[in-house]
Design a protein that fits this description.
about 425 residues, alpha+beta, 3 domains, four-stranded antiparallel sheet, elongated, DEF8, PKC_DAG/PE, coiled coil, Differentially expressed in FDCP 8 homolog isoform X3, repeat
């Protein structure tokens, strides 16, 4: 299918129609259909751009392999050198035309646009339902399994070369002498080998090493893996307790964070009902990452790295103290929602997250932990509820019997009337 950079709206509609037909004719869940669907999305986005905007600068936005490549201005200020993710050459921002993907940060020269072969990692993550992580540590298959080719650009790679041998990567020839050699670079994330243009020895923390070994040491990964890991670094995509529950026993700080997050969940039930807390933005503006309050099971890579260096616990404790202070001291409404222990009759107000308190797993009533243990974990409120239901069931049974007797009497009267008439 030809490039649609300069195509008119009518041409794009025709290409869209043909592409849709090819999608319907392709095999379901096949790689061919996946590529055709991506192409169809690109065509529709291009048609939408032509319809909705008259600004010529926006028309220059390129959609290639899921990348939304936006042309960058020459006077853009950068904090460091920028390199092309396709040819790995430097981008002279003041002199050269270049593009950056608004989704994944992929950068490339204008001349490299038509030779891009890397799918946008944002598309890869979206197709996998948010994130697809490799659970095995560096699942290496070997260079021979790849046919001695780069896993991304298919350039020939090997450890030794004969004199005068010339190889190409992205169409650019590399020439080596008898003593020269190129290192096939291993990606620690997916276990594949890459050439030097697709693998820049970028360091990144590997999720599989965290899950299995609690290893936060950054490892060398390819550019595609680096962009993917950077994209999901702050997303809570790791259900750590389900993947490796033993970590919570071996890492004390991890079990502490789990306990604090569960208590934050209890506090949240108070704060969402408090108008003053909503005005102050609690608990979401307490300086804590939102997902730490919203759920207690998932973690992001950044959470676990910050946990190891001590930053996360300080952040959680600061939010914990602010929320607890509002409920137990500052807000009369939240304080009035506290509990009194029914078992001992003490006037002390207790809350579910107190160390000396425990909640009934059925009805949620809060008691002193000591009192709860003395009563062998029997909740008087649950017993009253069961007795009430039993009484209601008895009343309903007697009522049903009376109704059944009335129905029988009515049927008997109907039969008697029929006999009399006959």
């Amino acid at each position: 299918m030809a490039d649609f950079k300069d195509a008119s709206e009518e041409d794009l509609k025709e290409m869209e129609r043909k592409c849709k037909q090819m999608v319907l004719e392709s095999e379901e869940c096949s790689e061919e259909r996946k590529w055709l669907v991506r192409r169809l999305i690109e065509l529709r986005l291009r048609v939408q751009e032509l319809r909705e905007t008259s600004d010529e600068s926006l028309l220059e936005t390129q959609v290639i392999l899921g990348h939304h490549l936006v042309p960058q201005k020459h006077h853009i200020v950068t904090t460091g050198p920028i390199y092309c993710d396709h040819c790995s050459g430097a981008i002279w921002t003041m002199l050269q035309s270049w593009y950056m993907c608004s989704d994944c940060g992929f950068c490339c020269h204008w001349k490299c646009l038509n030779r891009i072969c890397r799918i946008c990692v944002h598309v890869v993550a979206s197709e996998a339902g948010g994130y697809t992580y490799t659970r095995d540590i560096c699942p290496e298959k070997g260079l021979s399994a790849q046919g001695y080719k780069c896993a991304e650009c298919n350039a020939r790679i090997t450890f030794t070369f004969s004199k005068g041998l010339s190889l190409s990567c992205f169409g650019s020839p590399f020439r080596y002498t008898e003593s020269s050699w190129v290192e096939p670079r291993l990606c620690d994330y997916n276990g594949l080998y890459y050439c030097q243009r697709c693998h820049w020895n970028t360091l990144a923390v590997i999720p599989a090493r965290i899950i299995r070994n609690w290893d936060m040491e950054p490892r060398r990964v390819c550019r595609a893996a680096a962009q993917l890991l950077f994209l999901i670094e702050e997303r809570p995509v790791l259900p750590l307790e389900r993947l490796n529950p033993k970590l919570f026993t071996l890492v004390p700080d991890l079990s502490l964070v789990k306990k604090l997050r569960e208590e934050l969940q209890m506090m949240k039930r108070y704060l969402v009902l408090c108008p003053d807390a909503n005005t102050q933005g609690l608990p979401w503006r307490s300086g804590l990452r939102t997902h730490l309050v919203e759920n207690s099971g998932n973690y992001s890579i950044k959470d676990l790295v910050d946990l190891q260096n001590g930053t996360l616990i300080e952040e959680i404790r600061a939010a914990y103290d602010a929320m607890a202070s509002h409920i137990t001291e500052l807000c009369a409404l939240c304080k009035a929602r506290g509990h009194l222990c029914e078992l001992c009759g003490n006037d002390e107000v207790i809350y579910p997250w107190n160390e000396a308190a425990v909640s009934c797993p059925k009805c949620g009533t809060v008691y002193h932990r000591v009192c709860w243990s003395k009563r062998n974990h029997h909740c008087p409120k649950c017993r009253r509820i069961e007795q009430r239901f039993a009484l209601q069931s008895t009343d309903l049974t007697e009522s049903d019997k009376e109704c059944e007797k009335d129905e029988q009497d009515i049927e008997h009267c109907d039969i008697s009337q029929k006999d009399f008439l006959n």
